[in-house]
TrEMBL record:
Highest taxon of the lineage: Bacteria
Originating species: Anabaena cylindrica (strain ATCC 27899 / PCC 7122)
Record InterPro entries: CysQ/Inositol_MonoPase, Inositol_monoP_metal-BS, Inositol_monophosphatase-like, Inositol_monophosphatase_CS
Keyword ATP-binding: no
Protein name (record): inositol-phosphate phosphatase
Cofactors (names): Mg(2+)
Length: 315
């Protein structure tokens, strides 16, 4: 496992030309750092999950109705400290779920790390095992590098823009590609266990794919798709919305494996725009029937809105 201390890694400059050879070399060096940080973070998070941490008490508090534990805070600090020690603050900005304040708005750096130290905190607390660590590097508004770690399966997924998706475990590292050859009725859809609302329930009941299962954490849902245990993920905001750190890393892991991840209207997701919320309907798939499912989701929501005048994607 790659868990060696990265504090000694030398600082190296970033080049703004995304597809130059020099940049690709730098991106692969940055990926090595991000993977090491991912494994280290997984080991720390797992120690809280299994009660072997020095201070295993989770001290659960609630912020905007979402639980936050000492594990979220400790892992956030670990990831930020390690990345900043290796890469500095001059060329990179850092957004972590646990340090972000809504008044921060848009980070002015071209290169911004977007970090969710513990995605699926509710599942972490209720011990379903479905929780993940997300680390994404965004250039402008789009992800170029991603690491998603699932501590309970001891698997780390990584992707770079144009470089494909890989899964790493004690057995080594393998490329992952999704395949698509099922009729729409046979697709398996994964959805949140704990963030559901009336509009989402209505949508789920009216989609052509009725094989549906609840999984905690966006990272766990998306990796279920790249592992071909599921085909589609749908997210629909209500009074609150998922955030940039929930989506940025999982999105690149899926799209580099051949999947698609868009708003229901087909538009790509954007990150670090100044509004950290990912409002509206999002559909992730292994690419098959993506457009038709997006259309059906939009039509179904329009029908729902005509029956329930109160519904809007923000409220
Ligand atoms: N409607 C919503 N409002 C706020 N956060 C949401 C949300 N839907 C999903 N999320 C966030 O997305 C992550 C995965 O949720 P779920 O397991 O329900 O799919 C959680 O992140 P955190 O655990 O990092 O807070 C959760 O807070
Ligand atoms: Mg999250």
């Amino acid at each position: 496992m790659l868990c060696k201390d990265i504090l000694t890694v030398e600082y190296f400059p970033i080049h703004s030309n995304l597809f130059s050879d020099e940049f690709m070399k730098d991106l692969s060096e940055i990926l090595t750092i991000a993977r090491e940080v991912g494994w280290g973070a997984a080991s720390l998070l797992s120690s809280y999950y299994h009660g072997t941490a020095e201070e295993p008490n989770l001290d659960i508090k609630y912020k905007d109705n979402e639980p936050v534990t000492l594990a979220d805070l400790a892992v956030s600090q670990y990831i930020l400290t390690k990345l900043q020690a290796a890469l500095g603050n001059e060329e990179f900005g850092y957004i972590s779920e646990e340090t972000y304040k809504s008044q921060h708005g848009q980070n002015s750096h071209e290169w911004v790390w977007i970090i969710d130290p513990l995605d699926g905190t509710r599942d972490f607390i209720t011990k379903t095992g479905e929780y993940a660590i997300h680390i994404a590097l965004v250039q402008g508004t789009r992800p170029v590098l991603a690491v998603v770690v699932i501590p309970e399966t001891k698997k780390l997924y990584y992707a770079t823009k144009g470089g494909g998706t890989f899964v790493e475990s004690v057995n080594g590292s393998y490329p992952l590609k999704v395949t698509a050859n099922k009729p729409i009725e046979d697709l398996t859809l994964v959805v949140s266990r704990s963030h559901r609302n009336e509009a989402l329930e209505y949508l789920l009941q009216n989609l052509p794919c009725q094989n549906q299962k609840a999984i905690g954490s966006v990272g766990c849902k998306i990796t279920a798709i790249v592992e071909q245990q599921a085909d589609i993920y749908i997210s629909l905001s209500g009074k609150s919305a998922p955030k940039d750190w929930d989506m940025a890393a999982p999105e690149l892991i899926l799209t580099e494996a051949g999947g698609k991840f868009t708003h229901f209207n087909g538009q790509p997701l954007e990150y670090n725009t100044g509004d950290i919320n990912q409002w509206g309907g999002l559909l992730a798939s292994n690419s098959q029937h993506h457009e038709i499912l997006c259309q059906k989701a939009e039509q179904t929501l329009t029908k729902f809105a005509s029956q329930d005048g109160d519904y809007t994607v923000k409220g």
